[in-house]
Amino acid sequence: MAYGINAAAARLRRLVGKAGGVVPPPAKTRAALVLRIENAEMLRASLGPRALDRLVEALALRLTAELRFVPQARFPGQTELYGLLAVRRSSALPGHLAQLGAICRSPVDLGEIRVTPVVNAVIVSDDGGRAGQAALYAFGRDALDACSPLTQGGQLRFVEYSREEPPLRAEPLFSPDQVQCRFQPQICCDTGRVVGLSVLAGIEHPELGPLDLADFQTRLSDEVLGAAQRAVLRQALSALRGWDRMGLQVPVVTLPLGDRVLADPAFTEAVLWELDRLELEPARLEIEVTEPIGRSGGRAPVVENLQRLCSNGCRIAIGDFGSGQAGLDDIRLLRVSRVRVGHGFTAGCDRRVDQQRMILAILALAEHLRLATLADGVATIDEKSFLSQIGFGAIQGRAVVPPQTAREMDEVLTALETSLPPQFGLSRRA
């Protein structure tokens, strides 16, 4: 059986004392700790692999010092910890569980920065002390898989080892109908017209409220993430088809996808099937990949699937251009048509000279490579004014138009079209 921290403490107290007397403790209690950093991929991308290893090592050292944790050997890059707790009686476990919570929710000092990782952890107790280490670790790992990766602060569990009764199974994290799309217009810097809509995927969770899929997708399994992205794909393309019927001009929708999804050929089939089902031209879907390409899903399958989408007519864009590791060969190989410059470069660009120099260098490179450009994360009116005039093809952000639901976007698109002067062309007289 598995318990939360409060229920576990009450359960453990009942093991050592009942009404009117004290129950003798077992001759021996063995306990194991299984711990996993749930946002490891995000930390690896932001801190780097070496800093992440230092974080895991610092966490293990603190567990050793404060909980008498005896860890197993860990491979570089591994973000799970396994080990035994030096306890002899089950009465000591409530204190260990409380102390474990304090450790997991405290920031880890890496010298130059302090980082608080999202940690899920399980203490496995064997009152008889007969189970081997491998059995305790496997039981704890199964219980760890039942913890939700969606919680911001992580989860702690106490599990009683049983050969007959498996730990609690993981409940579905969310259902497909809880996946919700929002759309953010991309506005042309020359004409002021909508050149596309970026798709922002989220989850309307009944307990945790609205969640941004991008914030926790690295903590989801491939199966769950793939199902969520399929729901996003269907919603985005169905909305695009609906705007066509309303006579609203939306040339393209941009769908950001991670390499774990792009490595799955079944998702590529789903993209092509949805486009055909809704009778949409493939060129109206832009797949945005984030640098570096193929880091998690494997480079070869990601490139193969992107090339297939491109050969069928879909557009390919690179997100966060200039801040990743994609090379010029990737741009040629994938026939990239546009790059998105993220908030890391656009923030404060109206007043920071260093930002302006970097932006100008990126724009010059994009021009030489004949790539369209999109400035993202425009947060202030001053940033909007600067980026509109410096040479970007289009801009997007809260200072331009904030994200909207599909229903809200109906009104936004109508208002944008009616506010612009009619297009006209100059023709020569005969």
Automatic annotation (TrEMBL):
<protein>
    <submittedName>
        <fullName>EAL domain-containing protein</fullName>
    </submittedName>
</protein>
<dbReference type="InterPro" id="IPR050706">
    <property type="entry name" value="Cyclic-di-GMP_PDE-like"/>
</dbReference>
<dbReference type="GO" id="GO:0071111">
    <property type="term" value="F:cyclic-guanylate-specific phosphodiesterase activity"/>
</dbReference>
<dbReference type="InterPro" id="IPR001633">
    <property type="entry name" value="EAL_dom"/>
</dbReference>
<dbReference type="InterPro" id="IPR035919">
    <property type="entry name" value="EAL_sf"/>
</dbReference>
<feature type="domain" description="EAL">
    <location>
        <begin position="161"/>
        <end position="417"/>
    </location>
</feature>
<dbReference type="Pfam" id="PF00563">
    <property type="entry name" value="EAL"/>
</dbReference>
